[in-house]
Design brief:
6 strands; two-stranded antiparallel sheet; 531 residues; mainly alpha; two-stranded antiparallel ribbon; single chain
């Protein structure tokens, strides 16, 4: 065993590692890891796309209408108290009506509203997302120009799923290049929750924002850990692509990107950071990224999308809590962090369909264990970086709500914090990576098996429970759901998607376990340390 001592910006940090247990950071993105993870994540999100009824995710009708109007050249529409008025095909406008189950957990998804006689007829509709940045909607709305019935909505969902999975797969592929990567790779079983896959399978920019932000964060970590800068170009490419997409996803996206970009910089000593900033590849990436950031900020400020409800209350939706003090908003969100956490794990439908309690508890236990381990074990720059990341995760949502509550009310939802949640989980595991070298391979194998089995079971249980709620309502029987004539079922039937999701989730768990499994030579190398 070798004891490696290193100094990082004046801070001594001693890590016990073996010469052979982990290879050094890789310089190129592994194409196989990227393609396999992209395929599996895309298919998992698409399973949620079909298992979720049209208009079955938070504010999805508004996003559906927004996407269809933007690709037809109507980028804003006419303001009104119920949203911006736009012209879209009749089947798109119908999505506003098929919400009989929203906020009613016991009601199944069969609203009994037939397709319009002419699905493609121009129809006036409204969208509360009328002022949002149009980039996401341009990216996912184009299928409605090709498909002229409800299939166009499923096609939009599929495009959104592919884009979300693309950036999640990029993040995972970059993670496989990190030194001491095993725990960071395993952390994806905890980070990619059922809620992430659910949102990824619907028309909602929340999921793409989170995935692209994670890609930026992980690529920045790879740059920080790569002392030779051998993989700088490929990592900067991921950073630039992630910034371009994430910053234009939602109004708050620049805030999360500041954290994703800034935290990894804490790990880089000053002289090396200055050297990196002088690299031509870095300068080009910064310049191109700045253009996208400026464009996103120009849209947000020009449209006033973040503060429209405050400045023009007669033209925007209002929420409970209007007139309360900023301190009330801050404390309400900060003290409710655990409760809002349910929206990160599984709060489906219109926030009316929670994942089974056991699923939430399992993820909660895993998150708590990882955070506590990081706080107890990390030292030096890694501890500082993690502390900043944790503080941002806890405090920024409260600060945002404090700034908004007086004029706009209580608007915060747990899912809004998905970008920082993903960074927190993967970041904590990456920071802990060198310390995992001290864990005996036998113990690590048990951890991998435990995490993989529990994650697979929790993912499928959340999927099954949510599909059952839509098919037969919250009070419906399992017999009616599986064997009877369920009031609602997705295309292909309930059993098809239950089986397909089970196969895909199990395959993902097995492949992740295989990818992180300690090799025999590592066990031999570590043996002297655990006697």
């Amino acid at each position: 065993m070798t004891v490696l001592q290193r100094r990082a910006g004046g801070t001594d940090e001693t890590d016990l590692v073996t010469d052979r247990q982990e290879p050094a950071a890789r310089t190129r993105l592994p194409v196989r890891a990227f393609l396999v993870s992209w395929a599996l994540l895309s298919l998992l999100c698409i399973c949620w796309s079909f298992a979720t009824p049209i208009s079955g995710s938070p504010d999805e009708p508004a996003h559906i209408v927004r996407a269809a109007s933007v690709v037809r050249g109507e980028w804003v529409g006419t303001p009104s108290p119920v949203g911006n008025v736009v012209t879209v095909p009749a089947y798109i406008a119908r999505s506003q009506a098929v919400t009989c189950f929203a906020f009613h957990p016991a009601v199944d998804a069969d609203c009994g509203i037939q397709e319009p006689a002419d699905p493609d007829a121009d129809t006036r509709s409204t969208t509360s997302a009328g002022l949002y940045n149009p980039l996401y909607y341009l990216a996912v709305g184009w299928p409605t120009l090709v498909v002229h019935d409800t299939g166009g909505i499923y096609a939009m969902r599929a495009v959104s799923a592919l884009l979300t999975a693309l950036f999640l797969a990029l993040a995972f592929a970059v993670t496989t290049t990190l030194p001491h990567r095993r725990l960071a790779m395993l952390s994806y079983a905890l980070a990619i929750t059922p809620m992430m896959l659910f949102l990824g399978g619907t028309v909602n920019p929340n999921s793409l924002e989170a995935a692209a932000t994670l890609a930026v964060f992980v690529a920045m970590l790879a740059i920080a850990f790569d002392r030779t800068a051998a993989g700088l170009r490929s990592n900067l490419w991921v950073v630039g692509a992630g910034i371009a997409v994430a910053v234009n996803a939602r109004g708050l996206s620049p805030l999360w990107l500041v954290v994703a970009l800034g935290v990894p910089l804490v790990l880089i000593p000053g002289p090396r950071l200055l050297a990196l900033l002088r690299r031509p590849a870095t300068i080009v990436t910064m310049a191109v990224s700045a253009l996208f950031v400026i464009g996103a900020l120009a849209w947000t400020l020009g449209s006033n999308s973040l503060a429209n409800a405050i400045v023009k209350p007669d033209e925007a939706l209002q929420f409970p809590g209007v007139g309360a003090s900023p301190l009330t908003g801050f404390l309400r969100v900060l003290t409710g962090t655990v409760g809002y956490g349910q929206g990160l794990v599984g709060l489906f439908g219109w926030l009316d369909t929670p994942a089974p309690d056991v699923v939430v508890y399992l993820y909660g236990a895993g998150i708590a264990a990882l955070v506590v381990a990081a706080l107890l074990v990390l030292r030096g720059r890694r501890l500082l970086a993690f502390a900043i990341l944790l503080a941002a995760f806890l405090l920024l949502p409260a600060i945002v709500q404090a700034a908004y509550i007086h004029g706009g009310g209580l608007i915060w939802q747990g899912r809004y914090n998905l970008p920082l949640f993903l960074c927190l989980i993967v970041g904590a595991a990456a920071f802990l990576g060198p310390r995992v070298e001290l864990v005996a391979p036998t113990t690590m194998r048990r951890l991998i098996l435990l995490v993989s089995v529990l994650a697979v079971g929790a993912q499928w249980w959340a999927f099954e429970a949510t599909l059952r709620r839509y098919a037969v309502g919250g009070n419906g029987t399992l017999r009616l759901f599986l064997l009877g004539d369920a009031p609602w079922s997705p295309p292909g039937g309930n059993l098809l998607w239950l089986i397909l999701s089970a196969v895909l989730i199990a395959a993902s768990g097995v492949l992740l376990a295989v990818a992180t499994w300690p090799r025999r030579e590592a066990e031999v190398a570590v043996a002297p340390a655990v006697r």
